Amino acid sequence: xxxxxxxxxxxxxxxxxxxxxxxxxxxxxxxxxxxxxxxxxxxxxxxxxxxxxxxxxxxxxxxxxxxxxxxxxxxxxxxxxxxxxxxxxxxxxxxxxxxxxxxxxxxxxxxxxxxxxxxxxxxxxxxxxxxxxxxxxxxxxxxxxxxxxxxxxxxxxxxxxxxxxxxxxxxxxxxxxxxxxxxxxxxxxxxxxxxxxxxxxxxxxxxxxxxxxxxxxxxxxxxxxxxxxxxxxxxxxxxxxxxxxxxxxxxxxxxxxxxxxxxxxxxxxxxxxxxxxxxxxxxxxxxxxxxxxxxxxxxxxxxxxxxxxxxxxxxxxxx
Length: 319
What we know:
Layout: H1 4-14, H2 26-60, E1 87-106, E2 111-118, E3 134-138, E4 154-164, E5 173-183, E6 219-224, E7 228-230, E8 234-243, E9 250-251, E10 256-263, E11 268-275, E12 281-287, E13 293-303, E14 306-317
Parallel strand pairs: 3-5, 7-14
Antiparallel strand pairs: 1-2, 1-4, 2-3, 4-5, 6-8, 8-9, 8-12, 10-11, 10-13, 13-14
């Protein structure tokens, strides 16, 4: 005769109280049920342990200290970084040195990207996902004031230390954006500082209007766009870039262009990269994805050490 507990277990497994298995099989059923329960419990424990490890790894992620010197730290380093949510900011400002492995301009977003073999003093700040190489990125708004390095050069780099956001584990770390580049001798690399070795430079407040590029620089940028457009409709934008370096305006062919649609609250809602043609002109179509409201289209132009800014106001209404 089966006990009440055994009868209840059989009913839960089979949906009936009748004899589902021969008497000789009953101990196996009970053992199997216990094994399944233990396996499920162990799986929950392992999952929780793994998740805890991920959180613990992220929490322990560190960055090189800031040693700015002539380069200022930024209170909001992600101001002109498109899709900034793809990164986790580990430190607003960090300094690192190493040798350039490769460097190229990415036409997709106008960013100048460098792969850097960091000096031994900085290797401990990389994650396993980096595979020994640091990606440093100079965004378009900083390019007029940053030295363009070549592979094989040794550099000291200044920028924001960020981690790529990933679903599980720890992503690559980057110096993104990088707004300071100094070519240096390998024997003069900047060693990481501690608080006891020197006072670290405090962040400087960012300007309230179009930071990082001086409006009085040597590129004149004229932007033409409709005063009003409906949500989802294309907006035709014309851009003319001229160099006024010598006092006489002349076209700036192949100037790099970075366009930002910014809400009145300062929120970046849309971006696009382009290049001026041989006459310093560019025509782009931007599909307005922003909600109804008033916006400013900022256009940052750069060509070598020259830079300039143009802007135009427009409004978006319901379709």
